[in-house]
Amino acid sequence: MNNRQNISTIVLSGVSGGLIAFLIFFSFMGPVKNQPVDTSPAISFSKNYTSQQDLVVSAVEKASPAVVSVIITKDVPVLEQYYEDLGFNFSIPKYRDSGETEKKEIGGGSGFIVSDDGYIITNKHVVDQEDAEYTIFDQDGGSYPAEVIDIDSFNDLAVLKIDAKDLPYLEFSDSDQLKVGQTVIAIGNPLLQFSNSVSVGVVSGLARTITAGGQFQGAATEQLDGVIQTDAAINPGNSGGPLLDTDGKVIGVNVAVATAENIGFSIPSNIVSNIVDSVRENGRIIHPYLGIRYMQINPSLKEANNLSVDEGVLIIRGASAEELAVLPSSPADKAGLTENDIILEIDGQKLDKDHGLAKLVASKKVGDSVKLKIIHRGEEKEVTVILEEAPKN
Question: How much of the chain, in percent, has pLDDT values that exceed 90?
Protein backbone atom coordinates (compact mmCIF):
# COMPACT_ATOMS: atom_id res chain seq x y z
CA MET A 1 0.00 0.00 0.00
CA ASN A 2 2.50 2.59 -1.11
CA ASN A 3 3.10 4.95 -3.98
CA ARG A 4 5.13 3.38 -6.69
CA GLN A 5 5.79 3.88 -10.34
CA ASN A 6 3.81 1.85 -12.81
CA ILE A 7 6.44 0.12 -14.88
CA SER A 8 5.48 -2.11 -17.79
CA THR A 9 6.31 -5.79 -17.61
CA ILE A 10 9.57 -6.39 -15.78
CA VAL A 11 11.69 -9.45 -16.54
CA LEU A 12 14.35 -10.51 -14.08
CA SER A 13 17.69 -10.34 -15.82
CA GLY A 14 20.97 -8.42 -15.62
CA VAL A 15 22.91 -5.92 -17.65
CA SER A 16 25.05 -6.08 -20.81
CA GLY A 17 26.14 -3.77 -23.60
CA GLY A 18 26.31 0.01 -23.47
CA LEU A 19 28.16 3.08 -24.57
CA ILE A 20 31.55 4.47 -23.70
CA ALA A 21 31.82 8.20 -24.05
CA PHE A 22 35.12 9.82 -24.82
CA LEU A 23 36.42 13.34 -25.06
CA ILE A 24 37.95 14.52 -28.33
CA PHE A 25 40.04 17.65 -28.23
CA PHE A 26 40.94 19.29 -31.51
CA SER A 27 42.44 22.68 -32.23
CA PHE A 28 43.99 24.35 -35.21
CA MET A 29 46.00 27.51 -35.47
CA GLY A 30 47.71 28.91 -38.55
CA PRO A 31 50.23 31.77 -38.89
CA VAL A 32 48.94 35.27 -39.61
CA LYS A 33 50.27 36.71 -42.84
CA ASN A 34 53.44 38.78 -42.41
CA GLN A 35 53.60 37.90 -38.71
CA PRO A 36 56.22 35.67 -37.10
CA VAL A 37 55.11 32.14 -36.46
CA ASP A 38 54.84 31.19 -32.78
CA THR A 39 57.22 28.27 -32.35
CA SER A 40 56.61 27.81 -28.60
CA PRO A 41 55.53 24.32 -27.47
CA ALA A 42 51.81 23.54 -27.75
CA ILE A 43 49.78 23.18 -24.58
CA SER A 44 49.36 19.47 -23.72
CA PHE A 45 47.45 17.52 -21.12
CA SER A 46 49.36 16.23 -18.14
CA LYS A 47 50.40 12.62 -18.28
CA ASN A 48 48.40 12.18 -15.06
CA TYR A 49 45.14 12.92 -16.89
CA THR A 50 42.89 9.85 -16.87
CA SER A 51 40.07 9.57 -19.39
CA GLN A 52 36.74 7.92 -18.72
CA GLN A 53 37.76 5.15 -21.09
CA ASP A 54 40.90 4.46 -19.06
CA LEU A 55 38.86 4.34 -15.85
CA VAL A 56 36.40 1.86 -17.35
CA VAL A 57 39.13 -0.39 -18.76
CA SER A 58 40.97 -0.38 -15.43
CA ALA A 59 37.80 -1.18 -13.47
CA VAL A 60 36.91 -4.06 -15.80
CA GLU A 61 40.41 -5.54 -15.60
CA LYS A 62 40.26 -5.35 -11.82
CA ALA A 63 36.76 -6.81 -11.41
CA SER A 64 36.47 -9.45 -14.15
CA PRO A 65 38.33 -12.27 -12.37
CA ALA A 66 35.71 -12.19 -9.57
CA VAL A 67 32.67 -12.34 -11.87
CA VAL A 68 31.30 -15.84 -12.43
CA SER A 69 28.61 -17.74 -14.29
CA VAL A 70 26.02 -19.77 -12.37
CA ILE A 71 24.78 -22.80 -14.30
CA ILE A 72 21.67 -24.77 -13.26
CA THR A 73 21.46 -28.50 -13.97
CA LYS A 74 18.60 -30.81 -13.14
CA ASP A 75 17.40 -34.35 -13.76
CA VAL A 76 14.70 -34.10 -16.41
CA PRO A 77 12.57 -36.84 -18.00
CA VAL A 78 13.90 -38.49 -21.15
CA LEU A 79 11.27 -38.43 -23.88
CA GLU A 80 10.97 -41.15 -26.45
CA GLN A 81 9.43 -40.77 -29.86
CA TYR A 82 6.67 -43.00 -31.16
CA TYR A 83 4.22 -42.83 -34.05
CA GLU A 84 0.48 -42.78 -33.79
CA ASP A 85 -1.24 -44.60 -36.65
CA LEU A 86 -4.08 -42.54 -38.06
CA GLY A 87 -4.99 -45.09 -40.73
CA PHE A 88 -4.75 -44.90 -44.47
CA ASN A 89 -0.99 -45.51 -44.13
CA PHE A 90 -0.61 -42.20 -42.33
CA SER A 91 1.00 -41.69 -38.91
CA ILE A 92 2.28 -38.76 -36.90
CA PRO A 93 5.22 -38.57 -34.46
CA LYS A 94 4.50 -38.06 -30.77
CA TYR A 95 6.56 -38.11 -27.57
CA ARG A 96 6.10 -39.78 -24.18
CA ASP A 97 7.98 -40.16 -20.93
CA SER A 98 10.43 -43.05 -21.17
CA GLY A 99 10.57 -43.44 -17.40
CA GLU A 100 14.25 -42.45 -17.37
CA THR A 101 15.92 -39.14 -16.57
CA GLU A 102 19.06 -37.33 -17.67
CA LYS A 103 20.93 -34.38 -16.21
CA LYS A 104 20.63 -31.27 -18.38
CA GLU A 105 21.38 -27.58 -18.15
CA ILE A 106 18.08 -25.75 -17.68
CA GLY A 107 19.26 -22.18 -17.15
CA GLY A 108 21.63 -19.95 -15.26
CA GLY A 109 22.74 -16.45 -14.51
CA SER A 110 25.64 -14.40 -13.25
CA GLY A 111 27.24 -13.85 -9.88
CA PHE A 112 30.35 -12.48 -8.24
CA ILE A 113 32.75 -13.53 -5.49
CA VAL A 114 32.64 -11.42 -2.30
CA SER A 115 35.29 -13.15 -0.17
CA ASP A 116 38.56 -14.96 -0.76
CA ASP A 117 37.12 -18.14 0.77
CA GLY A 118 34.35 -18.58 -1.78
CA TYR A 119 31.17 -16.71 -0.84
CA ILE A 120 29.24 -15.65 -3.93
CA ILE A 121 26.29 -13.32 -4.49
CA THR A 122 23.62 -13.89 -7.13
CA ASN A 123 19.85 -13.41 -7.44
CA LYS A 124 17.37 -15.61 -5.61
CA HIS A 125 15.48 -16.28 -8.83
CA VAL A 126 18.66 -17.74 -10.38
CA VAL A 127 18.91 -20.49 -7.73
CA ASP A 128 15.29 -21.11 -6.70
CA GLN A 129 14.80 -24.38 -8.58
CA GLU A 130 13.97 -27.36 -6.37
CA ASP A 131 16.15 -30.48 -6.71
CA ALA A 132 18.60 -28.61 -8.95
CA GLU A 133 22.39 -28.50 -8.83
CA TYR A 134 24.39 -25.30 -9.25
CA THR A 135 27.86 -25.00 -10.73
CA ILE A 136 30.11 -21.94 -10.73
CA PHE A 137 32.33 -21.25 -13.74
CA ASP A 138 35.06 -18.62 -13.50
CA GLN A 139 36.47 -16.63 -16.41
CA ASP A 140 39.32 -19.13 -16.86
CA GLY A 141 36.92 -22.05 -17.31
CA GLY A 142 37.37 -23.50 -13.84
CA SER A 143 34.24 -25.06 -12.34
CA TYR A 144 33.09 -25.56 -8.75
CA PRO A 145 29.97 -27.18 -7.30
CA ALA A 146 28.08 -24.55 -5.30
CA GLU A 147 25.98 -24.78 -2.15
CA VAL A 148 23.08 -22.40 -1.63
CA ILE A 149 23.70 -21.04 1.87
CA ASP A 150 20.56 -18.91 2.12
CA ILE A 151 18.15 -16.86 0.03
CA ASP A 152 16.65 -13.46 0.66
CA SER A 153 13.12 -13.27 -0.69
CA PHE A 154 12.76 -9.64 0.36
CA ASN A 155 15.49 -8.47 -2.02
CA ASP A 156 15.77 -11.30 -4.58
CA LEU A 157 19.28 -12.19 -3.45
CA ALA A 158 21.06 -15.44 -2.64
CA VAL A 159 24.39 -16.35 -1.07
CA LEU A 160 26.29 -19.34 -2.47
CA LYS A 161 29.50 -20.99 -1.28
CA ILE A 162 32.19 -22.87 -3.15
CA ASP A 163 35.06 -24.84 -1.64
CA ALA A 164 38.06 -22.75 -2.66
CA LYS A 165 40.65 -20.44 -1.13
CA ASP A 166 42.60 -17.31 -2.08
CA LEU A 167 40.03 -16.24 -4.65
CA PRO A 168 39.79 -12.79 -6.23
CA TYR A 169 36.78 -10.93 -4.86
CA LEU A 170 34.94 -7.64 -5.22
CA GLU A 171 34.56 -4.94 -2.60
CA PHE A 172 31.43 -2.89 -1.96
CA SER A 173 31.06 0.84 -2.45
CA ASP A 174 28.56 3.03 -0.56
CA SER A 175 25.38 3.05 -2.67
CA ASP A 176 23.98 5.91 -0.57
CA GLN A 177 26.53 8.17 -2.26
CA LEU A 178 25.34 7.42 -5.81
CA LYS A 179 24.39 10.33 -8.05
CA VAL A 180 22.11 10.36 -11.07
CA GLY A 181 24.31 10.58 -14.17
CA GLN A 182 27.23 8.74 -12.56
CA THR A 183 29.06 6.30 -14.83
CA VAL A 184 28.40 2.63 -14.05
CA ILE A 185 29.73 -0.63 -15.46
CA ALA A 186 27.97 -3.99 -15.62
CA ILE A 187 29.62 -7.37 -16.13
CA GLY A 188 27.66 -10.56 -16.65
CA ASN A 189 26.81 -13.62 -18.72
CA PRO A 190 24.19 -12.48 -21.27
CA LEU A 191 22.12 -15.19 -22.94
CA LEU A 192 24.26 -17.71 -20.99
CA GLN A 193 26.73 -17.61 -23.89
CA PHE A 194 29.04 -14.64 -23.57
CA SER A 195 30.72 -14.74 -20.18
CA ASN A 196 32.08 -11.55 -18.63
CA SER A 197 30.48 -9.26 -21.19
CA VAL A 198 30.83 -5.59 -20.29
CA SER A 199 28.39 -2.70 -20.67
CA VAL A 200 28.72 0.92 -19.65
CA GLY A 201 25.99 3.40 -18.85
CA VAL A 202 24.89 5.83 -16.18
CA VAL A 203 22.70 5.87 -13.11
CA SER A 204 19.33 6.89 -14.57
CA GLY A 205 17.40 7.03 -11.31
CA LEU A 206 17.46 6.12 -7.64
CA ALA A 207 15.02 4.69 -5.10
CA ARG A 208 12.79 3.09 -7.72
CA THR A 209 10.06 0.57 -6.88
CA ILE A 210 9.39 -2.24 -9.36
CA THR A 211 7.36 -5.41 -9.59
CA ALA A 212 9.43 -8.19 -11.10
CA GLY A 213 8.81 -11.77 -12.19
CA GLY A 214 11.14 -14.76 -12.31
CA GLN A 215 12.73 -16.32 -15.37
CA PHE A 216 10.89 -19.65 -15.13
CA GLN A 217 7.27 -20.24 -16.07
CA GLY A 218 5.01 -19.86 -13.06
CA ALA A 219 7.62 -17.98 -11.04
CA ALA A 220 6.15 -15.58 -8.51
CA THR A 221 6.32 -11.84 -8.89
CA GLU A 222 7.75 -9.69 -6.15
CA GLN A 223 8.07 -6.02 -5.28
CA LEU A 224 11.56 -4.58 -4.96
CA ASP A 225 11.96 -1.20 -3.26
CA GLY A 226 14.76 1.33 -3.45
CA VAL A 227 16.46 -0.12 -6.53
CA ILE A 228 18.90 1.66 -8.84
CA GLN A 229 17.80 2.40 -12.41
CA THR A 230 20.46 2.28 -15.12
CA ASP A 231 20.40 2.74 -18.90
CA ALA A 232 22.90 -0.06 -19.57
CA ALA A 233 21.66 -2.66 -22.06
CA ILE A 234 19.97 -5.71 -20.53
CA ASN A 235 19.89 -9.34 -21.64
CA PRO A 236 18.63 -12.53 -19.97
CA GLY A 237 21.43 -14.30 -18.14
CA ASN A 238 22.88 -11.19 -16.53
CA SER A 239 20.88 -11.61 -13.32
CA GLY A 240 23.13 -11.57 -10.29
CA GLY A 241 26.04 -9.82 -11.95
CA PRO A 242 27.62 -6.72 -10.39
CA LEU A 243 27.00 -3.09 -11.21
CA LEU A 244 30.31 -1.31 -10.63
CA ASP A 245 31.62 2.20 -10.22
CA THR A 246 34.72 3.35 -12.07
CA ASP A 247 36.89 2.16 -9.17
CA GLY A 248 35.72 -1.41 -9.83
CA LYS A 249 33.70 -1.57 -6.61
CA VAL A 250 30.17 -2.99 -6.40
CA ILE A 251 27.35 -0.45 -6.19
CA GLY A 252 24.55 -2.87 -7.05
CA VAL A 253 23.43 -6.33 -8.12
CA ASN A 254 21.69 -6.45 -11.49
CA VAL A 255 18.24 -7.89 -11.12
CA ALA A 256 15.65 -6.80 -13.69
CA VAL A 257 14.89 -5.25 -17.04
CA ALA A 258 11.79 -3.42 -18.26
CA THR A 259 10.29 -4.22 -21.63
CA ALA A 260 11.11 -0.66 -22.66
CA GLU A 261 14.65 -0.21 -23.94
CA ASN A 262 17.50 1.15 -21.83
CA ILE A 263 15.80 0.57 -18.47
CA GLY A 264 17.53 -1.84 -16.11
CA PHE A 265 17.54 -2.20 -12.33
CA SER A 266 20.02 -3.14 -9.61
CA ILE A 267 19.75 -3.81 -5.88
CA PRO A 268 21.87 -1.26 -3.94
CA SER A 269 25.18 -2.47 -2.56
CA ASN A 270 24.48 -1.38 1.02
CA ILE A 271 21.64 -3.89 1.22
CA VAL A 272 23.83 -6.60 -0.32
CA SER A 273 26.81 -5.98 1.94
CA ASN A 274 24.59 -6.28 5.02
CA ILE A 275 23.39 -9.66 3.77
CA VAL A 276 26.95 -10.85 3.22
CA ASP A 277 27.91 -9.71 6.72
CA SER A 278 24.87 -11.50 8.15
CA VAL A 279 25.79 -14.81 6.53
CA ARG A 280 29.42 -14.60 7.59
CA GLU A 281 28.51 -13.71 11.18
CA ASN A 282 25.40 -15.85 11.68
CA GLY A 283 25.53 -18.55 9.01
CA ARG A 284 22.25 -17.29 7.55
CA ILE A 285 20.52 -14.16 6.32
CA ILE A 286 18.72 -12.25 9.06
CA HIS A 287 16.73 -9.05 8.62
CA PRO A 288 15.92 -6.32 11.12
CA TYR A 289 12.27 -5.32 11.37
CA LEU A 290 9.94 -2.88 13.11
CA GLY A 291 6.78 -4.97 13.01
CA ILE A 292 4.23 -2.55 11.55
CA ARG A 293 1.91 -2.27 8.58
CA TYR A 294 1.88 1.17 7.05
CA MET A 295 0.95 3.37 4.12
CA GLN A 296 3.14 6.04 2.56
CA ILE A 297 1.54 9.46 3.10
CA ASN A 298 1.00 11.65 0.04
CA PRO A 299 -1.04 14.80 -0.61
CA SER A 300 -4.18 12.85 -1.58
CA LEU A 301 -4.02 10.68 1.57
CA LYS A 302 -3.45 13.80 3.66
CA GLU A 303 -6.51 15.50 2.19
CA ALA A 304 -8.77 12.44 2.44
CA ASN A 305 -7.92 11.85 6.11
CA ASN A 306 -7.32 15.43 7.26
CA LEU A 307 -3.72 14.64 8.24
CA SER A 308 -1.34 17.34 9.43
CA VAL A 309 1.54 16.26 7.14
CA ASP A 310 1.94 15.10 3.53
CA GLU A 311 5.09 12.97 4.06
CA GLY A 312 6.03 10.09 6.32
CA VAL A 313 4.16 6.82 6.84
CA LEU A 314 0.84 6.13 8.56
CA ILE A 315 0.66 2.98 10.71
CA ILE A 316 -2.52 1.25 9.59
CA ARG A 317 -4.03 -2.23 9.75
CA GLY A 318 -4.52 -4.43 6.70
CA ALA A 319 -7.66 -5.49 4.88
CA SER A 320 -8.51 -8.34 7.25
CA ALA A 321 -8.87 -8.51 11.02
CA GLU A 322 -5.74 -10.70 11.20
CA GLU A 323 -3.55 -8.03 9.58
CA LEU A 324 -2.80 -5.93 12.64
CA ALA A 325 -1.25 -2.46 12.38
CA VAL A 326 1.39 -3.28 15.01
CA LEU A 327 2.52 -6.87 15.50
CA PRO A 328 2.36 -8.00 19.14
CA SER A 329 5.75 -8.23 20.88
CA SER A 330 7.46 -6.63 17.89
CA PRO A 331 10.09 -3.88 18.32
CA ALA A 332 7.45 -1.28 17.41
CA ASP A 333 5.04 -2.71 19.99
CA LYS A 334 7.72 -2.66 22.69
CA ALA A 335 8.49 0.99 21.84
CA GLY A 336 4.83 1.94 22.28
CA LEU A 337 3.89 2.60 18.63
CA THR A 338 0.18 2.24 17.91
CA GLU A 339 -2.22 2.27 15.00
CA ASN A 340 -2.64 5.72 13.39
CA ASP A 341 0.76 6.93 14.58
CA ILE A 342 2.70 8.74 11.85
CA ILE A 343 6.44 8.11 11.47
CA LEU A 344 8.18 11.20 10.07
CA GLU A 345 11.87 10.33 10.35
CA ILE A 346 14.25 7.50 11.14
CA ASP A 347 17.63 8.51 12.56
CA GLY A 348 17.12 12.04 11.26
CA GLN A 349 16.25 10.99 7.71
CA LYS A 350 12.85 12.19 6.55
CA LEU A 351 10.60 9.53 5.03
CA ASP A 352 9.60 10.62 1.53
CA LYS A 353 9.26 9.17 -1.95
CA ASP A 354 13.05 8.84 -2.25
CA HIS A 355 13.66 7.49 1.26
CA GLY A 356 11.26 4.67 2.04
CA LEU A 357 10.91 3.17 5.51
CA ALA A 358 11.57 -0.39 4.31
CA LYS A 359 14.83 0.61 2.61
CA LEU A 360 16.08 2.53 5.64
CA VAL A 361 15.28 -0.32 8.04
CA ALA A 362 16.94 -2.81 5.65
CA SER A 363 20.14 -0.76 5.80
CA LYS A 364 20.33 -1.35 9.58
CA LYS A 365 21.36 -4.45 11.50
CA VAL A 366 19.63 -6.57 14.10
CA GLY A 367 20.31 -5.02 17.51
CA ASP A 368 20.68 -1.49 16.16
CA SER A 369 18.98 1.25 18.17
CA VAL A 370 17.14 3.72 15.92
CA LYS A 371 15.36 6.95 16.75
CA LEU A 372 11.97 7.62 15.21
CA LYS A 373 10.31 11.00 15.05
CA ILE A 374 6.57 10.34 15.22
CA ILE A 375 3.22 12.03 15.63
CA HIS A 376 1.27 10.27 18.38
CA ARG A 377 -2.28 11.47 19.03
CA GLY A 378 -1.45 14.83 17.47
CA GLU A 379 1.76 15.34 19.44
CA GLU A 380 5.21 15.19 17.83
CA LYS A 381 7.69 13.14 19.84
CA GLU A 382 10.78 10.97 19.53
CA VAL A 383 10.97 7.27 20.43
CA THR A 384 13.82 4.77 20.42
CA VAL A 385 13.35 1.34 18.87
CA ILE A 386 15.77 -1.58 19.12
CA LEU A 387 15.54 -3.60 15.90
CA GLU A 388 15.09 -7.37 16.17
CA GLU A 389 15.35 -10.28 13.76
CA ALA A 390 12.41 -10.54 11.41
CA PRO A 391 10.55 -13.84 11.65
CA LYS A 392 10.85 -16.14 8.66
CA ASN A 393 7.89 -16.24 6.30
Answer: 37
Beta bridge partners of 236: none
| pLDDT tens per residue across span 72-114 | 888 677 777 778 777 777 788 877 777 776 777 777 889 999 9
Give, in degrees to the nearest 5, the angle at Cα 166 between 160 and 172.
60
Distance CA 307, CA 315 (A): 13
Contact indicator for 13, 189 with CB cutoff of 8 Å: no
Considering only the top CATH level, what class is 9-21+50-75+95-285? mainly beta
Q: Do 226 and 207 touch, CB atoms closer than 8 A?
A: yes
Q: Which residues are catalytic?
A: 125, 156, 239
Q: Domain 288-389, CATH 2.40.50.140 — does that match?
A: no
- Please give the Cα distance from 234 to 120 (Å, whole number): 21
pLDDT, tens digit (0-9, with 9 covering 90-100), for 259-274:
566 788 889 999 899 8
66 secondary structure, DSSP code: G
Where are the domains positioned within the chain?
Answer: 9-21+50-75+95-285, 288-389
